[in-house]
Amino acid sequence: MNRSGGAMHPPPARARRRRPRAFRASVPSLIMTAILCLLVLPPLVMLFRTSLVNYEDASAPYSLINYVKLIEDPLLYISTFNSVFFAAGATVVSLLIGATVAWIVERTNAPFKWLAYVTTIVSLGTPAILYVSAWIFLLGRAGPVNQLWKEITGSFQPLVNVYSIPGMMLVEGLLWVPLVFLLCGATFKRQNADLEEAARMSGGSVFDTVWRVSLPLAKPALYGLAIFIFIRNIEAFDVPVLLGTPGGIKLLTSDIYLSMTRVPPDLGHSSAFAIVMILFVSALLYLYGRVSANADRFASVTGKGFRPRPFDLGRYRWIGGFVIILNFLLVLALPVLAVLWNSVTPFVRGFSLKAFSTLTLENYVHVLTDSYYLQLALNTVFVAAISATVAIAVTAVAAWLSVRKWPASGPLNQLASLPIIFPGIVLGVAMIQLALRTPFGLYGSIWLIAIAFIIRYLPYGMRYAQPAVMQIHRELEEAANVSGASQPGTFRRIVLPLTAPALLAGWLFIFLVAAKELSIAVLLAGSRSKTVAVAMFDQWTNGQAGEVAALGIIWTIAMSCCAALMMALSRNDMKSQGTL
């Protein structure tokens, strides 16, 4: 009986059928949500749990003692200030050089544009550890730059101290110039040249036109890129450890690394440190999202058929060419020349005519014939390929479900993007703690590194997969469904072929980044699961600079081929979408 006294009737059969059908429709999203939760949530939960463990008092197993000690430690504030100062300076260097070269290449008729693309391709394939070691050689106290300064001036004080915060800013800033060039190039490529031409016709100089027209149009993109690069510089590991630690400069990432590598490791301190760093990065990412959300207000280009005209520099075009050549020298030529020199010398020594009589290929012979280096290459390729494949596969499905708004697909985009809050060194700390509590023998294995890389690069996969799915009109999938295709069949026969170029470019990008990753692998690698980047780090700290250089040259050549393929696929994909 119901409240009105009437008999209760069962729900109509149509309503009973609707509920099971709605549940079945949400099953793919629920499965994908469960997979993403299983990947991204355990490291965060484990990190937070360990940060609350009181290792000094067994009677009070959980407390805030690690956070109290961290806040009371003055070194935290010194490290935070140094990290922010270092990241800000490096960001300025990257933006000044990268954005300037991007505007010259994409919007002007300057010569030598091909040099900028060569610089970017080779840099994408160069491990950061190799790049940093090259600048240590070039700018070291006994390096060629300071030696030349000493001979010219007679001064015993070096011109450049690479083990200082300004030296670290320079090296880290040059590391990010290729990425800034690519991202700023995409922004400048889509700007309306009519506004710049109108400014020139109104009497504006080249500088006035760039300052008052080009930069304001690109302001939201540049602000967002500046925040993104700043975050990546805060998370940097190679430069803080290789340059900051010898110079006695404390930074957040190097402090976490040192707390984990001391004997015994201070898990509570490092976990609390990691949580604080996650909160800091999350605040920066929120700011990045707010800035990016307002970018549409500055849009000046519509329509797929838009083709920007180059900006005629006139007699200044050779100045633009000189800037491109300078970028080539700083970002690529000088570091590669230093690495080549170290790879053919029996021991580290400066450039000199006398040294030419001692040049040898012994380091290359040793690297190419020693099975140890072959195992390193196989480990690196395996880990990078597995992480790229799984990350792209998971995010391709998640992006499709999210873009098409399947039932229960709301959390997919947020879950896949969540690992972006993890700095590499922080994720490494979390994965160590997870591995110590699993019965599968993950600790020190190559599978632990692969799982960490998959988690780390899920946001990268989403960045490639989501825009690619959004480019596919829904009518193509609806036509397949009307023709009798199932949803899995539609995804396999319609969505995957059309998104293949973008997904392959994303796979190659993740492969390249994973092959260079040091901050995660340096904590997780065991004796038989080292990657090329970890081996380079170990050998450099042990004074084996010649073998590091030879291995780096061979590895850079191989990875540069992958980078060239990635850029070719990306450009073809953009042409197919009408954006070039």
TrEMBL record:
Residues 80-288, 377-566 form the ABC transmembrane type-1 domain. It comes from the Bacteria. The chain crosses the membrane at residues 21-41, 84-105, 114-138, 165-188, 209-231, 267-288, 316-341, 381-403, 415-434, 440-458, 494-515, 548-569. Pfam families: BPD_transp_1. The lineage of its organism: Bacteria, Pseudomonadati, Pseudomonadota, Alphaproteobacteria, Rhodobacterales. One of its GO terms (cellular component) is plasma membrane. It is a multi-pass membrane protein. InterPro entries: MetI-like (IPR000515), MetI-like_sf (IPR035906). This is Membrane protein. It is found in: Cell inner membrane; Cell membrane. Belongs to the binding-protein-dependent transport system permease family. GO terms for biological process: transmembrane transport. PROSITE patterns: ABC_TM1. Keywords: Cell inner membrane, Cell membrane, Membrane, Transmembrane, Transmembrane helix, Transport. Its main location: membrane. Residues 1-20 are annotated as: Disordered.
